[in-house]
Amino acid sequence: MKKRSKRYKLIEKKKVKEKLAFDKSLDLVKETCTTKMDESIDLSIKINTKQSKGGDFNLRTVVKLPHGNGKKFKVAVLCEQEKVDEAKKIGAEIAGSQDLLDKISNGELNFDKLICTPGMMSKIGKLGKILGPKGLMPNPKLGTVSNDLKKSITDIKSGLVEIKNDKDGNLALSIGRKNFSKEKLQENYKYFLDFLKKEKPENIKGEFIKNIFLTSTMGISYKLGSKN
């Protein structure tokens, strides 16, 4: 028989089958964040993507939580040569022009987010096969194609995150870390839920948000009640 750790046995006792209010779920999630790592507090949500016409709905946008989510991003900026020093001073860990294009072409993707100036977009198009599968292709709708480098870098550094659903309508979002106060996590959750409801297309009938689960990186998942 497979041996279970002491931690596993303790958090196993915290499992709950019924749906819970967000506050109660959050208390339990925090109780099961017992590893030494700074675990993230995560939402897993299933949305209704069936539209009455026009095929399935795909959600892809960005949201800036009131308190961020505590995740640190390594930002790269692809820009004209004369803007490279500026981008680095603003806060980009990596900035370049043709040299950065060459590195990306060789598969050097040692960054989490890529910002591109509009003038460089024509040069990055051929690298879509490399950047696309990694979710790194710059997109104006996501705030990663801009001449306002200060705003784009600051937004990402301060918690602007991308959300998108998979083919089954599932999406995931971190609303903070285990060291966040309960109040901050509550505010982030409420803000995101209100934001998500506003994204519902008019031609989707019935409930838009089907299920919501709250968990931590190494903890137990709790299903939230429909009124949360």
Structure overview:
The protein has 228 residues and is an alpha/beta fold. The protein has 2 domains: 18-70 and 160-223, Ribulose 1,5 Bisphosphate Carboxylase/Oxygenase (2-Layer Sandwich); 75-157, Rossmann fold (3-Layer(aba) Sandwich). Helix content is 29%, strand content 21%. It has helices spanning 6-12, 22-31, 84-90, 98-105, 121-124, 128-131, 149-157, 182-198; strands at residues 40-47, 60-64, 75-78, 94-96, 113-116, 160-164, 170-177, 209-216, 222-223. The strands form 3 sheets. Strands 7-1-8-9 form a 4-stranded antiparallel sheet. The protein has a 3-stranded parallel sheet with strand order 4-3-5, with helices on both faces. It has a two-stranded antiparallel ribbon with strand order 2-6. Strand 3, helix 3 and strand 4 form a beta-alpha-beta unit. The longest helix is centred in the C-terminal third of the chain and has 17 residues, at 182-198. The model has no long low-confidence stretch (mean pLDDT 90).
Features:
single chain; 228 residues; alpha/beta; Ribulose 1,5 Bisphosphate Carboxylase/Oxygenase; Rossmann fold; 2 domains; 3-stranded parallel beta sheet; 8 helices; 9 strands; 29% helix; globular
Topology of this protein?
Blueprint: H1 6-12, H2 22-31, E1 40-47, E2 60-64, E3 75-78, H3 84-90, E4 94-96, H4 98-105, E5 113-116, H5 121-124, H6 128-131, H7 149-157, E6 160-164, E7 170-177, H8 182-198, E8 209-216, E9 222-223
Parallel strand pairs: 3-4, 3-5
Antiparallel strand pairs: 1-7, 1-8, 2-6, 8-9
